[in-house]
Design goal:
By secondary structure, the protein is mostly helical. It has 11 helices and no strands. The chain has 2 domains: 103 residues, Serine Threonine Protein Phosphatase 5, Tetratricopeptide repeat; 102 residues, Serine Threonine Protein Phosphatase 5, Tetratricopeptide repeat (Alpha Horseshoe), CATH 1.25.40. Helix content is 71%, strand content 0%.
Length: 207
Amino acid sequence: MSDPAYEAISKARRQAGSGNPKGAVQTLEAYLATDPHNTKPRLELARIAIYDLDDMEYGLMQLDIVQDLEPDNKDALKAAVTVMSKHKKYNKETAEKFERLLSMESSAELYNLYAKFLRRQMADFKKAGEYYEKALVLSPNDYDIHQNYAVLLLNDLRDYEKARRELEYLLSVKPHDPVLKKNYDRLMKQKFDKNGNLKKPIFGFRR
């Protein structure tokens, strides 16, 4: 037996993949006119609208409809925060959606995404660090999370001991990366003495 929703999604993906996102949107809209409560084709419509048609507002509207139909739909929430977390105007709504997601799921992927949002949009560097650490507990070998955490430690938290450890981990994975080596060498030269100890501030001592 054929599945009309699956067929509509498959057709729309082919259309989007061949450079016809408007046709893909029309295909899914036509199907949803007959089955408006089906969230799978609506999620696909949102994805194509955002990433292929470059119509973020329309895509987010579709995700809102999915969340109205299924308030605990994690796919819709994740899709929404992934897009909205890049735009400061959505900060309040994005934070609320993250709170809902965090109450439903504990994953390195989600913690990493939340930490990036906290750093870039909310400037809550301390909390961002906490969530990067939570992410690394769940996924200790994730290079991208280590890299994101290293940037936070170096540029925002200025915790040079931890930054050193993160850069050393990154170099153990990519020992010939010239940018990593340059950042590590600069850190060691500027912040550590010849014995590898953290330098004291020029004015006064660390408390």
